[in-house]
């Protein structure tokens, strides 16, 4: 097969064949699942670690679908959602491309003196703030006038080809000029947004400097110099700014330990630590055309490796941690058969299953996990459901976005929840979810409101039987003595799923107004059944419901 043929096949698989979460056949009998919730057993505050997102392409934020997607994120938790973007200091006219963006903040005149222009980056941050989103500021990449290897400057990346590491990825010709650029930028942000606002942001240096073939053209020692200079620039402008790093890839190396040793020796302020963790899906050939198999075990192992390195350092063990990119695989802008999980419910159920496990891994090592950042946003003016890793397509929410809406509804205090089909994190790291499915749950209580999230996940994108869930809720407060009103929200093949609706339309390349309106309606977070009232006896209530494979359900109970 020619390269063009392989690319066309990959695109077809990404947009048509995978991720649809085909329902189980009629011959697949459901299997029983017992879930118990004790609303009286407080396990601590809900930590909304999901409130972090990001993208390679900063300029998409100011475009039509980018603004819409940011607005949706901001509405989930106003002024508590953070957005991280590459290329905030990259030279160019602001025209986006895959894995590319620019702001042109720094050039030099004929005498080599700095010229600062904040116009484009202000437009980006203004767009965030107008929609209730705060910057998680990545201090990168290198302006052309400062790069030690400036040419070629813009990379020629395309899905499946191109050289990513070009002039933007190299150390500066002058660390003093680099530090001054950061100082001037932060000082400008204070003048524009206010000191208290900027102090609420996160500031970190660069991206994945431990991957020299991609994001960093210098040595580790040169990165440490870059980081120190950047932090000095931030703190000169704002002494109480929140600074940290190193936002490295979880690559199984010792870079985190080397970074921690360096900042201790150098005395570099470090308010939080950050790294990345990714899964590794594969495409499994088969008689029906093959299917995607997720690699959730790789994701968890990558996170736990970095957790172990941080936990081994008594100086930094208690510092807040942000997993600065946490995704099923490593390239949002890449397409192909193994990435065909993205449009449908494989992505949404994976997301529901992975977040509690990352929190469990951190808790097991007594670490302070403050955030888990999903490197997913949107791709402007691309075909509908083009197979990129994103939250929306053509301005239409994908099923995964609805899981974040569910997360946002879980507030207050964590209460005890147990499922007899929830796999242990140790088993998932060892074997993935390849045999029995993972049907798990978490629950929270917020005043008189109880929220219970249940997921049904499997690594293989194949049909399977429904879970027949028997949910027993105990320890309900006195306010529930007359009964409980239950609202159930669902994300599965038939609910909250714009992709299924698009496939049912015949996968139109350009949906007309009526079709687009139907897709927008299908994309909303939907209830699986009408609101119902259940009896409460001796502070206990029982419910039964079916949960399809790769489905996620949120049940909200209030006094009835």
Automatic annotation (TrEMBL):
UniProt keyword Hydrolase present: yes
Signal sequence coordinates: 1-26
UniProt KW keywords: Glycosidase, Hydrolase, Signal
A matching Pfam family: Glyco_hydro_39
DNA repair as UniProt keyword: no
Stretches assigned to the Glycosyl hydrolases family 39 N-terminal catalytic domain: 34-523
Highest taxon in the source lineage: Bacteria
Name of the protein this chain belongs to: Beta-xylosidase
The species this protein was found in: Sphingomonas quercus
């Amino acid at each position: 097969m020619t390269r063009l043929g392989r690319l066309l096949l990959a695109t077809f698989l990404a947009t048509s064949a995978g991720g649809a979460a085909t329902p189980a056949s009629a011959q697949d009998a459901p299997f029983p699942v017992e879930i118990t919730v004790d609303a009286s057993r407080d396990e601590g505050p809900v930590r909304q670690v999901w409130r972090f997102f990001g993208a390679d392409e900063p300029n998409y934020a100011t475009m039509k679908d980018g603004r819409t997607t940011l607005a949706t994120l901001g509405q989930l938790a106003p002024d508590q959602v953070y957005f991280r973007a590459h290329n905030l200091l990259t030279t160019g006219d602001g025209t986006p491309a895959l894995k590319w963006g620019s702001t042109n903040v720094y050039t030099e005149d004929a005498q080599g003196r700095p010229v600062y222009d904040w116009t484009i980056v202000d437009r980006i941050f203004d767009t965030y703030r107008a929609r209730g989103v705060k910057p998680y500021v990545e201090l990168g990449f290198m302006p052309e006038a400062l790069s030690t290897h400036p040419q070629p400057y813009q990379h020629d990346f395309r899905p499946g080809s191109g050289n990513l590491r070009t002039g933007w990825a190299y150390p500066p010709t002058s660390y003093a000029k680099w530090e001054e650029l950061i100082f001037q930028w932060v000082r400008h942000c204070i003048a524009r947004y206010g000191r208290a606002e900027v102090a609420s942001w996160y500031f970190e240096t660069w991206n994945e400097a431990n991957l020299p073939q991609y994001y960093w053209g210098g040595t580790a020692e040169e990165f440490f110099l870059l980081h120190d200079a950047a932090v000095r620039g931030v703190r000169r402008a704002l002494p109480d700014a929140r600074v940290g790093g190193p936002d490295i890839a979880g690559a199984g190396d010792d870079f985190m330990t080397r970074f921690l040793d360096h900042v201790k020796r150098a005395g570099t302020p470090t308010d939080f630590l950050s790294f990345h963790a990714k899964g590794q899906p594969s495409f499994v050939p088969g008689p029906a055309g093959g299917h995607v198999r997720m690699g959730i075990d790789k994701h968890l192992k990558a996170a736990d490796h970095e957790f172990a390195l941080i936990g081994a350092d008594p100086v930094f063990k208690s510092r807040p941690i942000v997993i600065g990119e946490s995704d099923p695989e490593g390239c949002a802008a890449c397409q192909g058969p193994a990435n065909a999980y993205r449009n449908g419910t494989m992505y949404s159920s994976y997301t529901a299953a992975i977040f509690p496990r990352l929190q469990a891994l951190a808790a097991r090592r007594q670490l302070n996990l403050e955030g888990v950042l999903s490197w997913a946003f949107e791709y402007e003016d691309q075909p509908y459901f083009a197979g990129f890793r994103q939250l929306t397509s053509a301005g239409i929410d994908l099923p995964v976005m609805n899981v974040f809406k569910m997360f946002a509804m879980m507030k207050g205090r964590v209460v005890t929840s147990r499922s007899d089909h929830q796999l242990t994190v140790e088993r998932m790291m060892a074997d993935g979810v390849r045999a029995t499915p993972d049907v798990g749950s978490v629950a929270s209580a917020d005043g008189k409101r109880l929220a219970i999230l249940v997921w049904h996940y499997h690594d293989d994108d194949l049909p399977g039987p429904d879970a027949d869930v028997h949910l027993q809720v105990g320890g309900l407060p006195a306010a529930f003595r007359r009964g409980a009103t239950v609202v159930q929200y669902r994300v599965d093949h038939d609910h909250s799923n714009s992709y299924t609706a698009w496939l049912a339309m015949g996968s139109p390349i350009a949906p007309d107004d009526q079709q687009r309106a139907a897709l927008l309606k299908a994309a909303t977070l939907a209830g699986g059944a009408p609101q119902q009232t259940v009896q409460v006896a001796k502070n206990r209530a029982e419910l039964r419901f079916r949960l399809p494979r790769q489905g996620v359900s949120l049940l909200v109970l209030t006094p009835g």
